């Protein structure tokens, strides 16, 4: 999956070749540069991997054609929003034309010959449509996207909490151009056009195969996700912070327990809003700890079955079985007899810090946490097998309380990115260091 950077401060005479030269020797795929201009003189650049994007962030603050540029981590959603804003502004100018100075940087998107989109042009492309009536046909969609090559369309399928249409284009260039049709009319209906990917297309195909009949209009939609590969020690509060929903009720975050009643690496989140649900689905593939989390939608029935399978109420009751009561007392005695060092291993006195530039220095991280008076040795930078920085670090604190206070910096802008913080134990820190 491509990682997208946003560049600000581009010289009005700079083009795609200048941007590519600026990032050498990093490889930018064909169609990986899109210059949108505007008052901030912006461009969006796509890199194949997160590692390449982190290395590219080192160029922030350096000039292109004499103009200093700044780089920020971005996303396809941000680019879509930017394009939509520019299209609306262009429509307003057409309605009330005003003279424009020749020295003004262009406010319309600029496509270079080899940079019409942010992904290789040889691949197919996809978009989602919302707001269409259920009677819409493929022919209607082809007429709507006049001038673009629609290869196939699947109408009236479930897309997250709502229903819509998924369209496949022969070339990703056409799919990118299709985003400009957002908010245009199909007959008397205003159509919303959003980006999509192959996974969404395959999901729509699977729905058609499994549910060929039109679902009931009264069917209730669930805003529920199942998350895998979480740290087993993550609390409900930490999970809510990870998914940007600190205000949902604790009862809407459910840990999946094993047969012994211990947490597994899975959890469920029940949302009340479609926006929160969509945001959670888009977090699939993000790094948490040393693992990559997977997020997918799930029905309430399937969630209930998974929870009940290992629920302690459906196992032999410890209170009713004296053998288990004695075992629990024995376990408690053994726990009290453990050395304090082993107990300290379970305390969450460390932070796992992510989403920083690859060349971040310990002194810079120390300044970020200046109020906690860290020693330089308390900060360990993570590096790959080649010795290059990964933009991640682990930090040791004197107590759980200090680590919890430091975690409140989570999401703060640091060196051009939003730093991500996860509280971990000493044992987890050792596991992370052993895995790199």
From TrEMBL:
Natural source organism: Kryptolebias marmoratus
InterPro entries: ESRP (IPR050666), Nucleotide-bd_a/b_plait_sf (IPR012677), RBD_domain_sf (IPR035979), RRM_dom (IPR000504)
Tagged with keyword Zinc: no
Coiled-coil stretches: none
Location of the RRM domain: 349-426
Keywords: Repeat, RNA-binding
Gene3D superfamilies: 3.30.70.330
Protein's UniProt name: RNA binding motif protein 12Ba
GO MF annotation terms: RNA binding
Membrane-crossing residue ranges in chain numbering: none
Pfam families, alphabetized: RRM_1
SUPFAM superfamilies (alphabetical): RNA-binding domain, RBD (SSF54928)
């Amino acid at each position: 999956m491509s990682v997208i950077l946003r560049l600000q401060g581009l010289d009005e005479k700079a083009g795609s070749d200048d941007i590519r030269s600026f990032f050498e020797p990093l490889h930018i795929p064909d169609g990986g540069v899109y210059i949108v201009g505007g008052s901030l003189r912006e461009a969006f650049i796509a890199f194949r991997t997160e590692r390449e994007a982190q290395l590219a962030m080192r160029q922030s603050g350096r000039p292109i054609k004499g103009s200093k540029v700044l780089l920020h981590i971005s996303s396809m959603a941000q680019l879509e929003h930017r394009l939509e804003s520019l299209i609306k502004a262009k429509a307003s100018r057409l309605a009330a034309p005003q003279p424009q100075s020749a020295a003004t940087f262009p406010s319309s998107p600029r496509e270079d010959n080899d940079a019409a989109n942010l992904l290789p042009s040889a691949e197919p492309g996809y978009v989602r449509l919302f707001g269409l009536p259920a009677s819409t046909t493929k022919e209607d969609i082809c007429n709507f996207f006049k001038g673009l090559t629609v290869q196939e369309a699947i109408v009236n399928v479930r897309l997250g909490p709502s229903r819509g249409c998924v369209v496949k284009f022969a070339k990703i260039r056409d799919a990118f151009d299709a985003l400009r049709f957002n908010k245009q009319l199909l007959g008397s209906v205003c159509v919303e056009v959003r980006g999509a990917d192959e996974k969404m297309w395959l999901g729509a195909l699977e729905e058609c195969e499994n549910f060929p009949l039109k679902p009931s209009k009264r069917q209730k939609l669930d805003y529920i996700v199942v998350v895998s590969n979480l740290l087993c020690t993550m609390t409900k509060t930490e999970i809510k912070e990870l998914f940007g929903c600190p205000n949902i009720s604790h009862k809407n975050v459910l840990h999946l327990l094993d047969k012994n009643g211990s947490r597994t690496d899975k959890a469920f989140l029940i949302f009340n809003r479609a926006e929160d649900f969509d945001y959670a689905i888009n977090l699939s593939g993000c790094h948490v700890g040393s693992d990559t989390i997977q997020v997918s939608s799930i029905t309430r029935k399937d969630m209930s079955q998974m929870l009940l399978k290992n629920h302690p109420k459906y196992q032999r009751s410890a209170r009713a079985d004296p053998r288990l009561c004695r075992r629990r007392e024995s376990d408690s005695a053994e726990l009290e007899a453990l050395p304090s060092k082993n107990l300290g291993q379970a305390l969450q006195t460390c932070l796992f810090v992510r989403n920083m530039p690859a060349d971040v220095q310990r002194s810079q991280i120390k300044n970020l946490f200046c109020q906690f008076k860290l020693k330089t040795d308390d900060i360990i930078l993570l590096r790959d097998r080649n010795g290059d920085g990964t933009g991640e670090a682990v930090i040791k604190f004197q107590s759980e309380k200090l680590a919890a206070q430091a975690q409140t910096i989570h999401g703060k802008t640091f060196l051009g990115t939003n730093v991500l913080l996860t509280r971990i134990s000493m044992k987890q820190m050792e596991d992370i260091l052993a895995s790199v």
